[in-house]
């Protein structure tokens, strides 16, 4: 995957994730929607940087066709990614929302459970759609004029 595609992947992932996370937090918490939106944009920015760095490292260790990754490897990928992100984001969330570390952890766990499921589905779909696009680009096109 090229650097440009990694950036596209991370941006697409985060735009969808942030939008859905903000909506969920607005529904399930009593925090101000503007503060939640700002918080999730900061968290998403951190997540994008982490996503880029983590996936670059992960791909160095786990090479090969991504669309052929096992379910076990995909679960390992998501769990390790999300644990690392939790360590980075809980203190930031606590600070911005002026809540305790425990409350931030609980809120971040809710978001993390959602994002973990979302990440699994998103990456599976992305990898398979990408494989189809690459396969189609490699098929020669013939033009017949009658």
UniProtKB/TrEMBL annotation:
Domain of life: Bacteria
Record Pfam families: BTP
This protein's record includes keyword DNA repair: no
Transmembrane segments: 7-29, 35-54, 75-98, 104-126
Domain Chlorhexidine efflux transporter as annotated: residue spans: 1-62, 69-131
Protein name: PACE efflux transporter
UniProt keyword list: Membrane, Transmembrane, Transmembrane helix
InterPro entries, per database record: BTP_bacteria (IPR007896), PACE (IPR058208)
């Amino acid at each position: 995957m090229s650097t440009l595609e990694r950036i596209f992947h991370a941006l697409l992932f985060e735009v969808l994730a942030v939008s859905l996370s903000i909506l969920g937090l607005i529904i399930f918490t009593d925090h101000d929607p503007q503060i939640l939106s700002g918080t999730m944009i900061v968290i998403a920015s951190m997540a994008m940087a982490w996503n880029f760095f983590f996936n670059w490292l992960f791909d160095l260790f786990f090479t090969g066709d991504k669309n052929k990754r096992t379910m076990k490897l995909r679960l390992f990928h998501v769990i390790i990614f999300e644990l690392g992100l939790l360590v980075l984001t809980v203190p930031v969330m606590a600070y911005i929302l002026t809540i305790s570390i425990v409350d931030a952890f609980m809120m971040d766990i809710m978001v993390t459970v959602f994002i973990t499921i979302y990440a699994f589905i998103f990456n599976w779909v992305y990898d398979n759609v990408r494989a189809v696009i690459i396969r189609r680009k490699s098929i020669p096109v013939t033009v017949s004029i009658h």
